[in-house]
Amino acid sequence: MIRAVVLALAMFAASPAEAQPQPSEVPTEFEPPAKRPSGFWGTTERAKGGAYRWKLLGIGVVLAVVTGAVMLRLVRRANSQRRTDL
Question: Of all residues in the chain, what percent are helix, strand and coil, respectively (each to 5)?
């Protein structure tokens, strides 16, 4: 075990370190890469007025309510089974 750790450290120390090239210019503003669709859900342009915010919030609330209802049902069923098993 100790030999493996020493060997790994020796190999890591012997490997040459490569410097990352620094960017010549740092962007100061947001620029979309292109005015074409990204190929996934939408475009690279920002949503105007938070168009997706309320829909995503609604989906999250529905999922939380469904998950909570399922868990409540499972807990009640487990409690009733435990009472009958005693």
Answer: 55, 0, 45
- What SS3 state is found at 43? strand
52 membership: H or E segment, kind and range = none
This prediction's pTM: 0.44
β partners of residue 37: 43
Mean pLDDT per 10-residue interval, the chain, length 86 residues: 78 64 65 58 64 84 97 96 86
Token duo for residue 83? 């009472």
- Whether the CB-CB separation of 44 and 32 falls below 8 Å is answered with yes
**Integer Cα distance of 63 and 56 in angstroms:** 11
- Cα dist. 1→4, 8, 20, 34 in Å? 5, 11, 34, 53
- The residue ranges of every structural domain in the chain are 51-86
